[in-house]
Amino acid sequence: MKVPFTLNKEDIILDAEPDTKLLQLLRNNGYFSVKDGCKEGKCGSCTVLMDSKPVPSCIIPSAAVRHSNVETLEHFMKTQDYADIEAGFNQAGVELCGYCNAGKIFTAWSIISTDPRPLRENVVKAVRYFPCRCTDAETLASGIVMAAMARRKRLSGK
What we know:
Blueprint: E1 2-7, E2 10-15, H1 22-28, E3 47-50, E4 53-56, E5 69-71, H2 73-76, H3 80-92, H4 101-114, H5 120-127, H6 137-156
Parallel strand pairs: 1-5
Antiparallel strand pairs: 1-2, 3-4, 3-5
Helix pairs in contact: 3-6, 4-6, 5-6
């Protein structure tokens, strides 16, 4: 089956079986920021943005990707939004192990892009269930709040 979609701002058409998961489709085409973790959509290691929402690519069938916009961490890392998140994470002392980066970074982006002034306690609730423990929920929440401040500063030009 032909699967037309936009990947990292490029229109592409890939061949895939309807039940092939987006994770495999991406990895087979050289996108290794998506990690093959739990295969249940719970660990966050395979997270991508699909139509601007973080989704676990390990449970998304390729048929569901048709005509969608998908962005991987490889592409997102070139954006100003990523720079804001990186600045906030560095300021808070967030250390990522490499396994969970996509899940935590795209969750941070989802939070700060929908709420420019997220409340710390709400952020803690949103991130406390990541199974990877390279960074505790409190530190990660601080990093996201600081990322939101960096984003506000950039967008306001101050």
